[in-house]
Design brief:
Layout lengths: L3 E7 L5 H9 L2 E7 L6 E6 H11 L5 E6 L4 E11 L6 E8 L6 E10 L3 H4 L3 E4 L3 E6 L8 E4 L8 E3 L18 E6 L2 H27 L1
Parallel strand pairs: 1-4, 2-6, 7-10
Antiparallel strand pairs: 1-3, 2-3, 4-5, 5-6, 7-9, 8-12, 11-12
């Protein structure tokens, strides 16, 4: 994963009033914090940041922040606060990182291929659309791609089936399901209808002697 260069400005003002003025000027209040340095309050240009998000999404983003005082920080996107309607940026949190230290990142799950079960009428069910991984920033994948072509109806891919190599870990306590191929819904409905028919036949047979 490459660092995305982002020019930002250091700010001294804080508080709701100052934040409103920043947003009114088409910018976003932000902060970068980390274990080694004091937190720094920043201002990010809204169009620049919005373009990056539209092109890359929000998962596993790393930035090379170019601060207007000449300082540079390697950071990861930690949190984006949006307004009530989810339309406007309210605040951004960046977390300073060490490029040689593993960090926890959330990345999307994608599939490739067409499962054998789907060809027989089964349905692909993605249980986890994102996974939390632990790795150095340079090893962060844009997504985790899982080959489903060999899956039949009833088969599943569990977290412990996923091998991302020695550089990437998937922390977990339970071997949870990530993807599965379930039977077509019509099969289940037919089974229920068959059971209902059997019940009706039994009732009729039992009731017949009483009618005599």
């Amino acid at each position: 994963m490459e660092l995305i260069e982002l020019n930002v400005k250091k700010r001294e003002t804080q508080g709701k009033g100052a934040a409103r003025k920043i947003r009114a000027a088409n910018a976003i209040p932000a902060i970068v914090y980390g274990a080694k340095n004091e937190p720094v309050m920043l201002t990010v240009d809204t169009p620049d940041f919005d373009k990056i998000i539209r092109e890359n999404g929000t998962s596993g983003l790393f930035f090379d922040l170019k601060i207007d005082d000449g300082e540079a920080r390697s950071v990861m996107l930690k949190d984006i606060q949006m307004d009530t309607w989810g339309l406007n940026y309210v605040h951004i949190d960046f977390h300073e990182i060490d490029m040689d230290t593993k960090v926890s990142v959330t990345v999307p799950v994608e599939t490739e291929g067409v499962s054998a079960g789907s060809k027989e009428g089964g349905m692909l069910q993605i249980i986890r659309r994102e996974l939390d991984i632990l790795c150095k920033p340079k090893h962060t994948p844009e997504s985790i791609v899982l080959d489903i072509s060999g899956l039949n109806i009833g088969d599943a891919i569990h977290v412990e089936d996923i091998d991302l190599g020695d550089d990437i870990e998937i922390p977990h306590e339970v071997n949870f399901t990530v993807i599965t191929i379930v039977p077509p819904a019509s099969d289940s409905e037919e089974d229920v209808e068959d059971d209902d028919d059997d019940d009706e036949e039994e009732v009729i047979e039992e009731a017949a002697p009483e009618a005599e």
